[in-house]
Amino acid sequence: MNFLEERILKDGIVKEGNVLKVDSFLNHQMDVKLLDEIGKEFHRRFADKKVTKVLTIEASGIAIAYTVARCFDVPMVFAKKSKSVNVDGEMYTAEVESFTHKNKNQVIVSKKFLGKDDHVLIVDDFLANGCALQGLVSIAESAGATVEGIGIVIEKGFQIGGRVIRNLGYQLESLAIVDAMDAKTRTVTFREQ
Amino acid sequence: MNFLEERILKDGIVKEGNVLKVDSFLNHQMDVKLLDEIGKEFHRRFADKKVTKVLTIEASGIAIAYTVARCFDVPMVFAKKSKSVNVDGEMYTAEVESFTHKNKNQVIVSKKFLGKDDHVLIVDDFLANGCALQGLVSIAESAGATVEGIGIVIEKGFQIGGRVIRNLGYQLESLAIVDAMDAKTRTVTFREQ
Q: What is the secondary structure of B49-108 as a DSSP string?
């Protein structure tokens, strides 16, 4: 069991409806030492890749992208959620459906910050059905950039997102893959990696 | 002139309507070395304070809070924007008007992560009319926490936010205070600090 799986068992809370609350250390309150470890671990897993930029989506992805970008010593870019089409300058856009908020957002990245010479590592905190991630991949592909890999902190292995991305041929590294949760017994089952 | 003011003159873009675009290094693409410097500088300015938690608001504030929290070796908490009142558990809330998006958001922080024993350093990337910042102060005060200080990366000195916060007696440290901008001549005038 790695450092993240241990932390999930210690401080994660399993709720009805396959909800895993990690808001005490990952996506509301954030443990900076854990974030530092997460950055180092993704750097180790993608050490053989030539990464020029780390790409994520607001909001909680920003801390993940920062810690990873520090380790690679490259800039990070975060896609913005925008309901408006009134965006300044030339933008890459993707439509992203939010499972949690039951709405659609347009996700935008300025063309100034992503181009065909970029080698992109995409990161995010959670992967479930994969809509946000597919939007980020679509934006990177629109830019003509090379997607070197995808780093996810917690993947819900029982939802479709991870399988779709792996089937598409991307190297997807998830620090913890949750294959099952039980709110009654408060157990979390991780996939052996 | 400090490192941030130099960077603003080098890479910031002045637009009509008193808009200062810093999206190439601070709030869309992010320069991680600059963020590291920002963290160290806030740590230096609030070195005599007992800080137990760094508080900010999503989205771009998250990177600022992370770099500052690293330097103080404390957790960070980011307030979430939520249009819904259907929030899980007990929350501190504040209503925040967005100048940019011309709408109102409810801003929430879980009561689990802020309490009367906390000594809070509030940080954000921008301060203009101060609505977001006033919401964060209100949340910290609701929690009974002590606000040890407020750190802002770029303050628009010609808008009211900074004056209101200083009049209220808080120690507000802004790394750059822009007193005037001119889109025609592309000049930025910083306040002497």
A: S--SEEEEETTTHHHHHHHHHHHHT--EEEEEEES-S--SS-EEEEEEEETTTTEEEEEE
Sign of the Cα pseudo-torsion (B148, B108, A81, B16, in order): negative
Query: For residue A91, what are the contacts with CB-CB under 8 A and spacing of at least 6?
Result: A108, A109, A110, A111
Q: Which residues of B touch A (CB under 8 A)?
A: 23-24, 28-33, 35-36, 58-60, 62-63, 65-67, 69-70, 73-78, 80, 84, 101, 109-110, 112-113
Answer yes or no: do A29 and B76 touch at CB < 8 A.
yes
pTM above 0.90, yes or no: yes
pLDDT per position as a tens digit, A157-169: 999 999 999 999 9
CA A166, A38, A140, A144 dihedral sign is negative
Mean pLDDT of all residues in A22-38: 97
- Per-residue pLDDT of A99-128, as tens digits, reads 666 778 899 999 999 999 999 999 999 999
Q: What pLDDT does residue B193 have? A: 92
